[in-house]
């Protein structure tokens, strides 16, 4: 069975992360993340789609967990699937309840705070020719 990356660099058996078409049950994926020991540390992630120029990462955060300022080499979108997030990016503040999406340009520093137990999809896209 194929493996996917986790936030701690370990691997877990899971669905394929690349192919001509993929579908995921996000509620099931989030429940699975919350059953793993890493969830108790406040954060757990799983790469659910992985191509050289495109990634989709599902992340679950406990209430009051902060992902401190960082940046991604590619353009990103953050879509809150469950819960409520607050982000700072580009000198602005963003309120991201479930159903809200934020898109950030390349290399824009940002942080994330879970205002309640939350889950979000992080999508990263790199320009053609840049592989990661």
Explain what the structure shows.
- The protein has 1 helix and 11 strands; from the N terminus they run E-E-H-E-E-E-E-E-E-E-E-E.
- The strands form 3 sheets. It has a 5-stranded antiparallel β-sheet, with helices on one face. A 4-stranded antiparallel β-sheet has the order 5-10-7-8, with no helix packed on it. A two-stranded antiparallel sheet has the order 1-2.
- The protein has a single domain, classed as Jelly Rolls (Sandwich), CATH 2.60.120.
- The protein is mainly beta and 132 residues long.
- Strand 3 and strand 4 form a beta hairpin.
Could you give a short description of this structure?
The protein is mainly beta and 132 residues long. The chain is 8% helix and 49% strand. The two termini are 23 Å apart.
The proportion of strand residues reads over 45%
| E-strand count | 11
Low-pLDDT runs: 1-11
Strand order within the widest beta sheet: 3-4-11-6-9
Q: How far apart are the termini?
A: 23 Å
CATH architectural type: Sandwich
Domains (count) = 1
N-to-C SSE series? EEHEEEEEEEEE
Shape: globular
Biggest sheet statistics = 5 strands, antiparallel
Number of helices: 1
CATH class: Mainly Beta
Quote the CATH topology.
Jelly Rolls
**What structural class results from the helix and strand content?**
mainly beta
Mean pLDDT: 87
Report Rg.
14 Å
The percent of residues in helical segments reads under 10%
What is the assigned CATH homologous superfamily? Jelly Rolls
Keyword list:
about 130 residues, mainly beta, Jelly Rolls, five-stranded antiparallel sheet, four-stranded antiparallel sheet, about 50% strand, globular, disordered N terminus
């Amino acid at each position: 069975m194929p493996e996917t990356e986790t936030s701690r660099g370990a691997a877990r058996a899971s669905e394929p992360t690349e192919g001509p078409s993929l579908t995921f049950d996000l509620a099931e994926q989030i429940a699975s993340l919350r059953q793993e020991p890493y969830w108790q540390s406040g954060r757990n992630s799983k790469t659910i789609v992985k191509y050289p120029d495109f990634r989709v990462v599902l992340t679950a955060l406990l209430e009051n967990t902060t992902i401190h300022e960082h940046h991604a080499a590619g353009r990103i979108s953050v879509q809150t699937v469950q819960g409520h997030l607050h982000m700072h990016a580009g000198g602005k503040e963003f309120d991201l309840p479930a159903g809200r999406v934020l898109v950030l340009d390349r290399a824009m520093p940002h942080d994330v705070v879970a205002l309640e137990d939350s889950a979000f999809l992080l999508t990263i896209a790199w320009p053609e020719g840049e592989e990661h």
